[in-house]
Amino acid sequence: MKEQPIELAIETALKKRKYLSESKARYLLRAALAGVYIGFGIMVSYRLGEYFYDSHSPATPIASSIFFGLALVLIIYGGGELFTSNTMMLTISTLKKATTWKDTLENWIACYAGNMMGAIFFGLMLMMSGLFASPEKSQYMMEVVSMKMNTPGTELFIRAVLCNWLVCLAVWIPFSVKGDGAKIVVMLLLVFAFVVSGFEHSVANMVLFAIAILVPHPDTVTIAGGIFNLIPVTLGNILGGAFFVGTIHVYLHSANTVDQLYSQKEASRQAVYRQKAL
């Protein structure tokens, strides 16, 4: 019998706990790889978007969002550990008593730290590559970063909730989809939806800010601005993944379990009636 999505989420969370308990260094490396993979997605997005931005095309946000989903594909199939999706996974496993809240917090802290390490590493690599050495090649990216660093905290929080709601669905829904090709299409579409909508993703912002701060940038791009953004965005991502996907689906699964038990009892009762009739 095919495993239910809730069971697959718990199984995945238990693997994550095992990875962290066996070797914190290897787990941090997995998380750092996720930061790097997001960096590849950002690189493609903003290099492509710059061509549209320079020609003043209204399709710039669409063009820069199309291929960002490849970052999630790289993470899922490349063995990375992403903080935002882990907010859902570990919440589900903990509410179902497979893990503890201590396990959850340890995972979130380690994964967030590893993602940050990967973000800084990727930013340093890009700085040394010289690809953004000329300000003319990063105008679109700097405009987006400046906007993110100067948006009110309440708005950032709500955008972050909506963002991780979609991102976690991009991980959750493929649990019910057959075939890797179909899973990848679902991931790409849902990630495209969150990027083009202008929502806020803490790990993507880490990488974006690391790149923007390390290469030539305007005065509106600062470390303080990055911290100002990441605090409400991280909290919003936690709420979006842990509650709006993780907690809600645990609640719905409980209702489904009751329905299944009722159906089983009803089937048994009908079988008894048929036997008596014979």
Write structural notes for this entry.
By secondary structure, the protein is an all-alpha fold. The protein has one domain: Glycerol uptake facilitator protein. Helix content is 80%, strand content 0%. α5 runs parallel beside α11 and α8 packs across α11. The longest helix has 55 residues. It is globular, with a radius of gyration of 21 Å.
Concise summary:
With about 280 residues, the chain is mainly α.
Quick tags:
single chain, 278 residues, mainly alpha, Glycerol uptake facilitator protein, Aquaporin-like, formate transmembrane transporter activity, For/NO2_transpt_CS, transmembrane helix, membrane
Helix/strand layout:
Elements: H1 5-22, H2 24-54, H3 60-65, H4 70-78, H5 83-95, H6 101-129, H7 139-149, H8 153-172, H9 180-197, H10 202-214, H11 223-277
Helix pairs in contact: 1-2, 1-5, 2-4, 2-6, 2-10, 5-6, 5-11, 6-10, 8-9, 8-11, 10-11
GO molecular function: formate transmembrane transporter activity
Membrane topology: Multi-pass membrane protein
Transmembrane segments: 27-46, 66-88, 109-133, 156-175, 187-215, 227-252
The largest β sheet comes out as:
none
Task: Supply the CATH class.
Answer: Mainly Alpha
Shape by Cα distribution: globular
What is the helix content?
A: over 70%
